[in-house]
Amino acid sequence: MGEFCKTVELQLNQSLPVLDFIKTNVSSFLGVCYEKEILELDSAIAAKYREPMVLIGWYIAVASYFCGNVMLSESKLTIIMKKFWVPMELFSLNAASLTVISVAMKLPMHLTSPMPGEIDQVAKVRSLGFMCIIMSTIMPSLATMDSKSLVSNVTALSILVLTIVVNVGIQIKTQVITHASFHPFSMPPFMAAYIYMTTPSLKKVMERKYQATLIDQNLHENLILFNVEELRQLVKRHWIMAATSSPQFVMATTPLSSASSIICAISTVVCICLSWHAPASIKRGKSVYIYLTNAIYFTQSVGVVIGAVATMYRYFAVQRIKSFANQNQKHFSVFKVEKYWTQVLCDWKEICISSEYLPDNYTLLRNNVLRSFIGLQSVIVVSCKIVERIPIVVIILFMYCSSYFKSLTDVFITPSTASSSEDTDEDLSNYVLVLEDDMQLIKYPVKRFLDTLSSVKKFTVWNPCNNLLKLVEKSVAFEGVEMFDNGCIQSLLSSELVNSWSLPIISLTCIAIVIPSINKDLIDNLLKSVIEGLFLTHRVEASLNTTPEYINIHRATKVLSREIENKHECLKTTSKRSAYEGKTPIEIIKSFTHRAKDIVTKFNRSTNGEQVEKENIPIKVIVANSMYRIAQMIMHTYEIKNLEIVEDELFMRLSNMIADILLACLTNIPRVIKMKCREGAIEKREASVLVAAGLLEKTYEIIRRLETRELPNIDPEKMGFINEWRLHFKQP
What we know:
Blueprint: H1 2-14, H2 19-50, H3 52-80, H4 95-104, H5 118-138, H6 147-173, H7 187-216, H8 228-244, H9 247-252, H10 255-276, H11 292-323, H12 339-350, H13 362-389, H14 392-401, H15 406-412, H16 417-422, H17 443-459, H18 466-472, H19 479-483, H20 502-512, H21 520-544, H22 548-567, E1 569-570, E2 573-574, H23 585-606, H24 619-640, H25 647-666, H26 669-677, H27 685-698, H28 700-707, H29 722-730
């Protein structure tokens, strides 16, 4: 265009007849040419700077897909586990999820490039609905956070939502977005801020009721139960208490969560209507994200549907549970605001702050502001209760029609036969904890919770310890607990270390599995049994051996067990039998002795004989010291009896000692189950009871065997320590 303008200018200047006319108009003509050239240059520059928008579009689409996929995974998992309140465990509010959500919300915050196309307009509105669905879905997870995390995450969430709302408001005001129905989309995210005001109070109420139920139902008794049926009943009682007092469940049953679900359903309908009836005034143009705008729109649309179904399923499930309570007469009593909704603000109001640097009217102003917030909180609670009651007619019709759709209720509502088969005559409704004092759940909702427990146990990896059961059946009288260390072998370390359950088991196993002439199947079965047993001994030690001197030993046993299981090594020496072919048992034991002694001696030289704190002794040294004492004990036992070491007899002796130690340790499993049932933190209590239920299923047959065994008369509080067992056997 520049060359063309110069040519025209030269020709016009050479045309003498019209020279005067041209001289008066050529500047205007050339100005048009130059403006055209500048516009083309600007267009080329703009096209160049729009190239990264494609990659940004991919970024948005991937973030949207991630959010939708996680919501789908959570929904499928909760349906499989029959957790009808749809808790969010994978997709909770934290720094990572907030980052992903902010990336997925790029479209409504896009202000730098024109997006006049119809798909651009609809995609922006769909992103708002997607945000609403995400926030409503993860809202119950806010209740699982501690106060510090809750403040930071809710603050970050509020800033993000406020930024989006302001940006969209500016775009609507300036006619950049012609869809004006965005206001309901921001309500659930702002409700999260008010959840922060109520979560601490809700937790305190439920914790108080939990402790009161423990006392009323005599669940504080510290008895060692070896009856599996009693243990099962104990787990069921604590599961009902833990599940109904779970912060996520409590939050899911509140009017805030129910109203949020309804608003999300409305926003989903609005999004669909806006997509089908886009205004004709919207220009059809090419998006700066090209084809990726369609991908973003489709991905977020699927996410909206998934989230809407999940939140409404939660809403109907919770309302159905409430309908079985004695709340029918309270369905329309919505104007009562319970104390726990405003307790935090009231506590703030009662705090007296005095300082000479504050103005005289500071206290009055502060109290007035807090009164305003208390009033606003009450209005929000009442409003949510009203919104929660809107679909009550639909729910009543659904309840009446459910009998005609048995196939549907069998999947989503009716308890499965698995839970029914486990039901007992005991009424567990006394263990249900609810916020309202005058609300009690009857048998049907209790079965729903037991159905959840059965489903969780069914789909978890707590398989019975069949190999371990075969091994511990060899135990006769717990003699191996005393025999593995007779006290004649002195420690190589200057400080005497305590004994643990796992360490001697691993040391004995390392020696037993390398005996060359033993049948390979016997070796494999022993190793499988020990691996199953170590899983349980680690649980016992983590629950009962919690003093500082045991912590380092626990780490040593876990490292050594992983080396044996995965690397087939012990003290950096192979545990494969092929490496010991042609060696006698005494040579094998001596090789372990020399290797262990070298490691400990080297450590002693490095410390110049100075005593090292037990917590600072290296893991390898702890293992080596144990291996040295046990290997020396084996040789000493045969020497004092003047016996020849026979491979089969040695393997049998070591196997029996391992079985004795394992069974003695497993006598503490019932106590560990009770401790797991009484987890202190309310946020972790539900998961802890599930661990207890899994332990019970895994050790069911072993506990049944213990019912018929005569156990030593040891204080239950001391049975968790192997040294206490050894002291008991040494007594005359």
